[in-house]
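Researcher: Please predict.
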Amino acid sequence: MPLRSDWSTATCPIARSADVLADPWVLLILRELFSGRRRFDELRDATGAADSVLARRLASMSGSGLLTRDAERGYALTDAGRETLPILHAFARFSRATDPDGPWGLTVSCARCGEVAASVDWCATCAAPLDAASTRWTRRSMGGEPFDLISGGVA
């Protein structure tokens, strides 16, 4: 018996997207790829996934067109993979909404102007898109130290 339904051929775009992205491991792998981790061991250590789990998810993500693998450079996001950044931002906003004083929050800011983002994909202050090159994440779990999403983590 399968663990869940196969929605890959569904006519609903949300169902088709969920077929690719509704796995928590996929979201964590995307987070780490945006953070600049590219190697299997880096992804494993950062996510806590078992080797077999990580290998299956990476193969699935590659098959879905979210990432590519280069023997020298490691894993890299494709254009489709980069399109998931607003989804990760939405998860971060949701986490803050449900636990605003929690110790593990992630704040999304515009790296250009420094303002906290009020949207998941656009900076309302400087009117520019929030992409990997212009986004700063600050995690309370990291002592509140901001870090830019680096283009080295994105192909």
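Model: The beta strands are 67-70, 74-77, 106-110, 122-123, 128-129, 135-139, 146-148.
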